[in-house]
Amino acid sequence: MNVVAQRKILDLNKYGLPLGSGQFLDLSGKIIGYIGSVSSDLSIAASQVLKPLGHVQISYGSSSAYLSNREEHPYFMRVVTADTTQAEAMMLLVKELNGEYIQVIHTQGAYGEAGKDQVVYQAKLMGICIANTIMVPESSIDDYYGYYEQLRKYPFAKLVIVFVQSWIARPFLSDLGEQMVKGDFQFIGSQSWANSQWCSLMTSIRIYSVPLLLLLK
Fold it and tell me: What is the pLDDT of residue 202?
């Protein structure tokens, strides 16, 4: 997917916009920027080819901390909160909940791994111990039942940070909810999904979203 996106951007700049007649509309000097993507991995891939072209890129959903590197991504901008801020807000919420130990669940790729790295960094600053980190595949799988046993290895770390994409969060937490005894664990979710309506319908799981006031601190 990332390579396809890069190729399309390069072809658009080199050949122009393909028309139904088989010809191309020359866009030389007419492109002022690109919008997208929601995925951090795709945004990073796009930024890598847009950097030498000097084109601005604005993302409406990519929050990875990797994209904050101005040397690597000088033309990248976004309209969502970066994960550096989210991770700090999550740890402030952990402190508010009197948490001393946490577990971290994250997906593979730029979003989940960068989010996990920021959580680890902020936890160390605030004196919060990370008992366990669990990585789940970035693509959907048949079920997530096995991950409950991984959490249960550290029963004293009842607060669980969840840095996964929105399309994974719902089935993941739904599968956990079918196995959990109420109160076993409490989950703190990232902005990408924790404010979704379906979270309030999961009666067997307590899900916290990061308050907006903490993000604005």
Answer: 79
